[in-house]
Queue: 3 jobs
Job 1
Amino acid sequence: MNASEAEFRHLLGKARDAKHGGRDAWSVQSTGEKVAVALVLNRPDWLASINYTLAEAVERTGPVWLSMVRDVERALCEEPPKELEAGHVNRLD
């Protein structure tokens, strides 16, 4: 695995944690991770809660992670819902 793959997996994991765990999972991340994950999850309210504007968030995230934001967002959208992964499907039949 090269460095960019490792960075992508790291950001994806942090974004996945926050997507499924909400603000509690997001709040324990480092500031840099919080900022990037808030961008991935389109949560300007989370950015505001740590006193970051969108422009500041873009600057803080930096070019490497910023280039991955859309791909991480897309990867999260393509994942099955957590309930399906865990086998918790309510069947009607």
Job 2
Amino acid sequence: MLVLWAGTAVAQGFPLVVPPVVVATDTPVIRPVTRPPPSPYAVLVSLRPAVRPASIEAAAEERRLARLRGQVCGDIAIQGDTLGRVEGAGACGVSDAVRVRSVSGVALRPAATMDCRTATALKTWVNRGAIPAVRAEGGGVASLRVVSHYACRNRNNFATGRLSEHAYGRAIDIAGIGLQDGSEITVLSGWGTEDDGAQLRQMWRAACGPFGTVLGPEANRFHADHFHFDTARYRSGSYCR
């Protein structure tokens, strides 16, 4: 290295010392960075999913189109048939009726006739009530056992009195929840039990709101074995018993 010294100067009687300037003349040494060898478990090439066979893609598209063809009420989650006006005796009948086979992938056994407002309320209840209450038990919810839907009759099947909401296609009665493994949660045998009873009560509570009337085993003797759901509207809100 060369060290260059500057002279000194005197200003106002004080000596001014200029610090030495060091000039580096050596060529810097660049040392290579040592990296550890790659792990034998490292992925050397980014993985890409295998291209699906054309047959699988075609089958998936056909299922999608089938669901579009089968949708009712303008909702692909509600599958069935459009019936139009269903006539009935006297004041009975359904305007813009549909026959619903499934909602959100849950089959109705048998298919049920109702109006679209009731079908939409049923879908909401399945998604917010039945499926969350059952969770993964028995593989999950597979079907609903329907014991009444559209029927021209009076309330509680009395010979006289007011027409039931069933007479207008605004009601559905459900007696059991079928599971994927073939078992069933029934309102009649499960309501008073610790296990199924908790699930059924959760379903009953979830129906309050989507439906205007919700009746279960504690409402009266006529509903000991099923839930009654209808879309009647009251000024005071849903009637749930």
Job 3
Amino acid sequence: MAASRGGARFVSTTSRARLAHAPLRLSALVEAPRHAIAEVLARHEQVRTLFDNGWLTLFALEHGRITARWHRGAGWDEGGLARAA
């Protein structure tokens, strides 16, 4: 059964054994200090869970440019985003 391979996210994009459409994720881009964003995530477990479980992708912005991406268990990863933006 598809649910055992990827959970509800996988099931919602499949029709029996084939993909019904390419799965897309909503991205949230927030222009605020990373520590402030992390504090909000710490206070609101349900919001953090959306990012930690891969339903949403979180990016931090500085001066309109992506500077970091949030990763479950690891926090912020700059990973060359500022150079690439």
